[in-house]
TrEMBL record:
Gene Ontology cellular component terms for the protein in this record: periplasmic space
Molecular-function annotations in GO: copper ion binding
Domain of life assignment: Bacteria
GO biological process per UniProt: response to copper ion
Signal peptide start and end residues: 1-26
Organism: Corynebacterium freneyi DNF00450
Pfam families for this protein: CopC
Protein name: CopC domain-containing protein
Domain CopC residue range list: 41-137
Gene3D superfamilies found in the cross-reference section: 2.60.40.1220
Length: 186
């Protein structure tokens, strides 16, 4: 095959490759609106005792129902005194579908006061989720604990998608420019 025919063939191949690459990366070139959507992690949708609830006596069982099914790994619940911050009990809860729970030993009865149930679970998406619920016993009143404080791997930030898309655009422009110059040289 003569040299000039091969250059034309390579030039057309480069243009085709550039177009194919451009089409493959088109979603990334769109910017922030095409970045992956962050999905919510599992959150507490119900609990016993309820967040902020005032009880007559210390609960014998703690239950939390989550919006998804937590993974059966690294799940922990702890009860602490809200005023002194003393941790009274730490347990690995039972997991039954969306519900995690544990029985409070009869020997634990700290009396009237404000308490926090802190939790750390592995959400159904694999990310660690931490949060707390508050309850009180006797005449003490507490505000709701605020539910889940997500600790997560945020994934690829939007600026990285934009920078990556810009880099791909520059590379495509250089390849296309080289292909055009090679074609004109024929």
């Amino acid at each position: 095959m003569p040299v000039h025919m091969r250059k034309g063939f390579i030039g057309r191949s480069a243009i085709a490759a550039t177009l194919a690459t451009g089409l493959a990366f088109a979603p990334a070139l769109g910017g922030a609106d095409t970045a992956p959507v962050a999905h919510a992690h599992d959150s507490v949708i119900a609990s016993t005792p309820a967040d902020g609830q005032n009880l007559d006596e210390f609960p014998r069982r703690i239950e939390m129902t989550f919006s998804g099914v937590p993974r059966d790994s690294f799940n922990t619940l702890a009860i602490s005194n809200a005023d002194t911050k003393e941790v009274l009990l730490t347990e690995q809860p039972e997991l039954n579908g969306q519900v995690i729970s544990f029985d409070v030993p009869e020997s634990l009865d700290p009396g009237p006061g404000a308490y926090i149930v802190g939790f750390q679970i592995t959400s159904s998406d694999g990310h660690s989720t931490r949060g707390k619920l508050s309850f009180s016993v006797g005449d003490h009143q507490v505000d709701a604990g605020g539910g889940s404080d997500l600790e997560e791997d945020a994934g690829v930030p939007t600026w990285a998608w934009i920078a990556g898309g810009g880099l791909v655009a520059v590379i495509l422009a250089v390849v296309a420019g080289v292909a055009v110059v090679n074609r004109k040289a024929d």
